[in-house]
Amino acid sequence: MDLDTLRRFFQLSPFMRDLGAEPTAVSPGRVTAVLPMQDRFRQHSGHAHAGVQTTLADHSMGSAAQTLVADGHWVLTADLKVSLLRPADGERLVCEAWVVKPGRTLSFTEAEVWAEREGDRTLVLKASATMAVVPLDRR
Prior knowledge:
Layout: H1 3-11, H2 14-19, E1 22-27, E2 30-36, H3 50-66, E3 73-84, E4 92-101, E5 106-117, E6 120-135
Antiparallel strand pairs: 1-2, 2-4, 3-6, 4-5, 5-6
């Protein structure tokens, strides 16, 4: 999968389109995506909402797994574990996601989300997910 194909894949998800998350790099089993921070992504204390961070990680892990599946199949999240390490403050969130172990029916993935401000990066989230590989006609 090349970067243009991955961008189209992100656009297939109305929620990701609405958030404005964009992939910036892709290689087999690896995806990097960014999300510019907006006020609407903040919770009551002003930090990035955990749900926004988790969404970025989840979709990026699924996209990383999608780069390795056979044509005619989708990847869907079957299990998701998130650890929020510290408050996320910054101009944008950057997610790096990768496949730990690909499989024919299940793939195991991990991700890290970083908050960036003026070029400095702070690790704010670690995640792991099990992705189910299903035929295109099943959702």
